[in-house]
Amino acid sequence: MKHQTLRIAATLLTILAWVMGAIGAVVSVLVGIGAATAVAKIGFVLGGFIISAVSVIMMLAVSKLIYLFIDIEEDLAKIARSADGK
Question: Which candidate, 45, 46, 55, 63, has a CA 20 to 30 Å from the CA of 26?
Fold first, then answer.
């Protein structure tokens, strides 16, 4: 199977994104609980959730982009083989 390393990297990136999202959510809540004022609590929790969500979305997008490039390369190779055969 061609591009096995890229597939592994994309899979690990997906797993890392979900783990980072879960840890980010837990840390956001813990930091929010430890904040001194109500405004700080809301700010830390919402800010942490937003930063975690953006990070997860970016990592998942990069993972899907790697898969997309692999699929494009495989499709182009298939087209090239069929064009050479004619």
Answer: 63
Radius of gyration in angstroms for the set of CA atoms belonging to the chain, rounded to a whole number: 20
Domain that holds residue 30: 4-77
Q: List, for residues 8-57, the tens digit of each pLDDT value.
A: 999 999 999 999 999 999 999 999 999 989 999 999 999 999 999 999 99
Counting the structural domains of the chain, the total is: 1
Nearest to 67 by CA among 3, 10, 2: 10
Share of the chain residues as helix, strand and coil, in percent rounded to the nearest 5: 90, 0, 10
Distance CA 53, CA 22 (A): 10
